[in-house]
């Protein structure tokens, strides 16, 4: 068995300024090509996870626009499942082509619809924080709020206004044990899309709940459950910085987990962007004693060659 890594992709790997299906599929084609160097040496098993915040928010708007007694809008958990299948299809198309183009057609690909167990009493249900859907101007946000008074809309990291929904912490991935044999068979797998479909455990199974789970925390939990050797979180920003955007901005290279926890406590990272990625990486390192890396897709070649990026290591 080769090195096993779990890769978490941000929304920038899927959605560009053009929200059409064709544009998103094309963006994923570029992403697939960028990820091929990770497995080209045939000594790495790669599991891919991805976000779905923009897609699930857009889908919910489409659902609401067409809502009627004969065609009722689907709830949020079902919308997460729908986008998981949608993005999984695009990924299958993209990776099949990338594998063929790189003379690796023997590598099979599968996308697994995945459920993620959360605590029904998680405080996140009382405090929505997960941005979904499109960005709005301040005026548009006011108009949307009037139209949907039960929505919570906040300013998102200086980029505009977005709807936020509950984002409970993942406790486990229902399909994790079923995924392991696929990895043992060297199958390239996409799982836990959009953080997974949020469910709570009941006596006779599971029940879907209205939430969107943070994909980085789900990726960390998945990496732990499938015995990954490393968690790799790709962001549009790239490496992690202290004092981001300030004159004394400083890139972080290799950092111990205790040092990174200190930076988290100092609120060095923006809540809507880098903070959850760092916190998820820290949780994986703490729970497994293994390494997590945060970097950009543009840095894949350097990561493969030298492990470039912000690496969080055990103490």
Automatic annotation (TrEMBL):
GO molecular function: carbamate kinase activity
CDD domains: AAK_CK
Entry keyword set: Arginine metabolism, Kinase, Transferase
Catalytic activity: hydrogencarbonate + NH4(+) + ATP = carbamoyl phosphate + ADP + H2O + H(+)
Gene Ontology BP terms: L-arginine deiminase pathway
InterPro entries cross-referenced by the UniProt entry: AceGlu_kinase-like_sf, Asp/Glu/Uridylate_kinase, Carb_kinase
Positions of the Aspartate/glutamate/uridylate kinase domain: 3-295
Source superkingdom: Bacteria
Pathway in which the depicted protein is active: Metabolic intermediate metabolism; carbamoyl phosphate degradation; CO(2) and NH(3) from carbamoyl phosphate: step 1/1
A GO CC term assigned to this protein in UniProt: cytosol
Name of the protein in its database record: Carbamate kinase
UniProt gene name: arcC
